[in-house]
Amino acid sequence: MNKMTLRTLPALILIAFSGAASAAAFQLWEQNASGLGTAYAGSAAVADNASTVFFNPAGMTQLTGFQLSAGVNGIGPRFEFNNEGSSGLLGGSGNGGNAGGWAAVPNAYFSWQLSPNWYLGFGVSAPFGLSTEYNNSNWIGKNQSIKSEIKTVNYNPSVAYKVNDKVSLGFGVNYQTINAEMTNATPLGLYALKGDDSAWGWNAGALFTLSPAMRVGISYRSAVSYTLEGTRSLGATSSAAKADIKLPDTFILSVWQQVSDRWEAMGDLSYTNWSTLDKLKINHSTGTDVEAFNYKDSWRFAWGAAYRATESTKLKFGIAYDKTPTTNNDRSARVPDNDRVWFSLGGQWNTGKTGTFDLGYSYLYLKDPTINQSKLNGASTLRGRYDDSAHVVGLQYSVGF
User: Fold this and answer.
1) How buried is residue 21: exposed, middle or buried, by Cβ count under 10 Å (0-12/13-18/19+)?
2) 10-residue block means of pLDDT along the chain (401 residues)?
3) How much is the mean pLDDT over the chain?
4) pTM metric for this prediction
5) Which pLDDT does position 24 carry in this prediction?
């Protein structure tokens, strides 16, 4: 286990991979920019560049030679609180401003065809990320939250095997690091928890080519269990602390179809087992602190299409519904989340031998969530409504040799 420092990874890498979640809770779907324009519909079946290593490693069998894909997504969420009757022991004044802000989430992948039937791949990505920080540390909800941050980096070697022209299988191993921090105010001073760890997981997938114009993909990413080790501080007192956390597993079912010479259609159904995250129990020398999540399992539905405008240019669009794992009774100021709808647009430009560029944009509409969160044994209750939304912009370069 790692102590509460940044020594697990160079600090600059962790900063680059910090993210403010745009999918439900603090999951990050933004693992490429080529799928952003279709709201990630068909993510486990499209397999048109090396980023399939993340979504479905079996998709590498659709690629030839050596393929490289790298990109970055900028995520800009907005979480603005409006007070509606908060009571008890509260902060100073003000609603805390925008607790969101822009963050960069880079990614990189490659795949290599070893033989007609065997493929190797590798990916670096950030499956989960969260960053909320209220502008005023003395805001009305300071007892509930001031800063909350989770950073993950995932290293994903993969292998794929083409069984025949109809069936391909893929498997990957995941080495994932996590770095977490959360703070809030108490009558005894600032409460702060910092911790990090690394752990192993796995992912697998299958790709079924039903016809030259239709593919169906299924994929699964396992849960990853951590034991965060670091420090727990309360005012001027600090002590070593541990906390177990299990990030959820995800299942994806995707379809891709070539409708005509110019049109492609794709769809996605995904399920994330968020119920693995119930309570965070922080064990330290003087007792145990509990941060409640009470998350429920969630679903995501997406549909998208692509239109080949010219031999080198595609236009993309998509829509998705992403259900939150939290409820009105359990929503917290750390993750003021709610159901969201993705509206996505994108474009692809194939320059030929010099590679392919993808540009995508999504606007995330969130139904404004309400909050009724009590802390300090009920002595402080934050009541109100959040104004939530997000913008996502992505750029990706892919090339084959």
Assistant:
1) buried
2) 37 45 80 97 97 98 97 95 92 90 94 98 95 92 95 97 98 97 94 96 98 97 97 94 95 98 97 93 92 93 97 97 92 94 97 94 94 92 95 97 92
3) 92
4) 0.91
5) 72
Measured CA distances, 120 to 9, 106, 133, 162 (Å): 25, 21, 40, 12
Q: How many CB atoms lie within 10 A of CB 252?
A: 24
Other Cβ atoms closer than 10 A to 106: 16
Q: Which long-range contacts (CB under 8 A, 24 or more apart) does 294-298 make?
A: 294/326, 294/327, 294/329, 294/330, 295/25, 295/325, 295/326, 295/330, 296/325, 296/326, 296/327, 297/271, 297/272, 297/273, 297/325, 298/24, 298/25, 298/271, 298/272, 298/274, 298/322, 298/323, 298/324, 298/325
Tokens of 250: 């995800």
Output the CA angle 27-375-22, nearest 5 degrees.
15
Structure tokens, 36: 């952003």
Nearest residue to 344 (alpha-carbon basis) of 26, 73, 41, 128: 41
User: Tokens 């928890």 label which residue?
Assistant: 193
Q: Which domains does the chain have, with CATH numbers?
A: 11-388 (2.40.160.60)
- Report pLDDT digits (tens) over 270-301: 999 999 999 999 999 989 999 989 999 999 99
Q: How far apart are alpha carbons 219 and 253 in whole angstroms? A: 7
Which three-class secondary structure state does DSSP give residue 341? strand
Residues composing the chain? 401
Q: Detail the DSSP E strand segments found in 235-339.
A: 237-247, 250-258, 263-272, 279-284, 287-292, 298-308, 313-322
Tokens for 301, please give them: 């539905």
The bridge status of strand 224-234 relative to strand 189-211 is: antiparallel
Compute how many other C-beta atoms are within 10 angstroms of the C-beta atom of residue 267.
20
